[in-house]
């Protein structure tokens, strides 16, 4: 009898443990409300995130202006939610200086020509004439001694005044590294374009080097994020890219507007896979509306509008190993270069897109859809035409002779400055296209 009682007690303990575990798993996430705190370099947002602890939770930003001097760093299982156009994360005025002395990769300070305007707590970027992409460095100023900036980390690479090395108070508004299940929604991120005119005003960039600093300074920059979602955000006038997802998988960017940024509008890159950019608007950005960059695989770009960007509507698809991506039901209108640029790569699909009145920067030079060096890709049921009084778009669809085994079928190509269709690729299938 004693044995039976003990066994029953063990069973009850096990059941109680299972119930407690289920209760914990179903527990509602902790919610913290935030009002702007002008004493904080992140307006109080980072402090709220940190207070949630490793389990994450929800940070709700009440309507208001949130001035940023430093990036907000997200963690896994975190939601940041604002009230749309009423919740504004706002960058301060551009400040920077050339370096006055060489900085080594292990150094923890930077000597500048003039530190005036920089403050302790400011996040800065370090660049020179030729740095691009990952080569730029980031740090936070911990102390200022005259014109010496003591920073929170090693510089990371050598910078020399002889090569135009400089610092500038650029940073992502929101950044994350190796975070999962992050939701960023209902935010307006304003880069104050007039007050942030670009790094070349601090130190000149070399010819053929992008004048802007790019994706590591994007308004939203997520690196190796998984199963995360950016929705209903409005990025405007940011002094670099708009929204950048580098590496990671299972992510979505939906119902966002990115406009007048000094770089790419949307930027999937660095090996991003199995993700989606949908129902967004990217307009009047300095570079491409959306820029594919390096080893992007199985990413869907659909139902977006890419309008009036100075580069391509959708650019660089295929280059450096982009494969098996789907570009579907987008509108690419009045962009400076091509509506959609497909360069290199294999197995990508373009279908049911509309490319209208592109090549605005150089009339007669760029096409609605342009393919070069691409293999085994599908271009189907797209509409490419020019209805302006003075046409600018070179061809509706242009496939160069260095393309191989592409399927280009059932497209409609209207009047252009040259032939509506120019399909020169080898070994593919061209059928059902209408001029």
Q: Going across the major beta sheet, what is the strand order?
A: 1-2-5-14-17-20-23-26-29-32-35-38-41
Profile the largest sheet: 13 strands, parallel
The level 1 CATH classification of the largest domain is Mainly Beta
Shape: globular
Whole-angstrom Rg: 25 Å
Percent range of helical residues: under 10%
Q: Regions with pLDDT < 50 over 5+ consecutive residues?
A: 1-25
Percentage beta strand: 25-35%
Q: Please, what is the average pLDDT? A: 93
- Please tell me the total number of domains: 2
Instruction: Count every helix, treating DSSP H or I runs of 4 or more residues as helices.
Output: 2
Helix/sheet category: mainly beta
Beta strand count = 41
Oligomer status: single chain
